[in-house]
């Protein structure tokens, strides 16, 4: 993205060749002059001329051979000395340096730590910067960390969102992780949920349109607060709730929820159609284990019908 021009000149008896990074080489002597360069040296096919010096015309893009008086009609203002990469080296990456060198584009990596992308600087993010591999990194505060009006999610302060959302952002599919809500806080109240149950939250953005299967299982985890008076049927009983957006707070629209797959099957499962790029938040908890309780288990996401 950072452009650096390179300019070369060659002089000899009866011969003048100027290779410029931009503009018309003819302007070095007579404005608008555009005589052809020496055959084979005129900037890749004689595109443009070198001033009021006559010569054998190169063929190609910039026009026909110029005359001895540098007339505008023959290779005049159209010529640009034949620099093939003039203005065309931008690779769209803020973390490379765009160089035109000997008519060729090069893109060496920018210095590690160089600024790129967003320059926003607030309690949930600082300006983006380049890493050693040429990637522009968002320097966001940890997801779920506290900010003035709520908590940070993907570099944004979500007003009213309890601290702790999300625990994870899904990096790719298939996805599987353990979940644990012991010592957590209530992040969302779904229709299948018991109010004030601590939640484990995952933000997921669909990589393609299709049907996704989201499954959560509970388990009798070590040091989980099981046996606190709950009936055995409630132990290791996972609950899934899906809300729109990325940790939109307690008031985010609910999309779907599931407590038990079927009678006597305490795991939970939701099949959900998502559009390409659609973002959701998946909340998991253990049924009835209100704060300061909680549970643990596993969570998975797979694309089942692309």
Which structural class do the helices and strands define? mainly beta
Total domains? 2
Task: Name the assembly state.
Answer: single chain
% residues in beta strands: 25-35%
**How is the CATH topology of the largest domain named?**
Jelly Rolls
End-to-end span in angstroms?
A: 36 Å
Taking the sheet with the most strands, its summary is:
5 strands, mixed
Radius of gyration: 32 Å
The CATH class designation of the largest domain is Mainly Beta
Provide the helix percentage.
under 10%
Report on the structure:
The two termini are 36 Å apart. β6 (125-130) and β7 (136-140) form a beta hairpin. This protein has strands at 2-4, 8-12, 15-19, 97-101, 104-106, 125-130, 136-140, 150-153, 156-159, 168-169, 175-180, 200-205, 210-219, 238-244, 254-258, 268-274, 279-286, 296-305. Mean pLDDT is 76; it is low at 4-83. The strands form 6 sheets. It has a 5-stranded mixed beta sheet, with no helix packed on it. Strands 11-18-13-16 form a 4-stranded antiparallel beta sheet, with no helix packed on it. It folds into 2 domains: 1-108, no CATH class; 159-305, Jelly Rolls, CATH 2.60.120. The chain is mainly β and 306 residues long.
């Amino acid at each position: 993205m950072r452009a650096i021009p390179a300019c070369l000149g060659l002089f000899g008896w009866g011969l003048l060749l100027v290779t410029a990074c931009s503009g018309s080489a003819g302007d070095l002597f007579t404005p608008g002059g555009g005589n052809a360069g020496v055959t084979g040296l005129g900037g890749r096919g004689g595109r443009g001329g070198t001033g009021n010096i006559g010569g054998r015309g190169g063929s190609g893009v910039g026009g026909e051979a110029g005359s001895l008086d540098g007339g505008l009609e023959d290779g005049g203002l159209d010529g640009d000395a034949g620099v093939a990469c003039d203005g065309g080296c931008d690779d769209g990456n803020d973390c490379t340096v765009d160089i035109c060198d000997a008519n060729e584009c090069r893109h060496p990596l920018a210095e590690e730590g160089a600024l790129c992308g967003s320059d926003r600087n607030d309690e949930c993010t600082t300006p983006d910067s380049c890493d050693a591999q040429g990637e522009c990194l968002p320097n966001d505060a940890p997801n779920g960390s506290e900010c003035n009006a709520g908590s940070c999610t993907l570099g944004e302060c979500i007003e009213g969102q309890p601290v702790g959302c999300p625990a994870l952002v899904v990096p790719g599919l298939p996805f599987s992780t353990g979940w644990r809500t012991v010592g957590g806080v209530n992040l969302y109240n779904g229709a299948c949920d018991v109010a004030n149950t601590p939640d484990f939250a995952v933000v997921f953005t669909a990589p393609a349109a299709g049907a996704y299967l989201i499954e959560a299982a509970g388990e009798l985890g070590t040091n989980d607060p099981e046996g606190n008076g709950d009936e055995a049927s409630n132990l290791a009983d996972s609950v899934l709730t899906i809300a729109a957006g990325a940790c939109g707070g307690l008031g985010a629209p609910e999309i779907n929820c599931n407590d038990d797959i079927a009678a006597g099957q305490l795991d939970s499962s939701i099949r959900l159609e998502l559009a390409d790029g659609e973002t959701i938040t998946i909340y998991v908890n253990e049924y009835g284990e209100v704060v300061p309780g909680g549970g643990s288990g596993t969570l998975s996401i797979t694309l089942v019908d692309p």
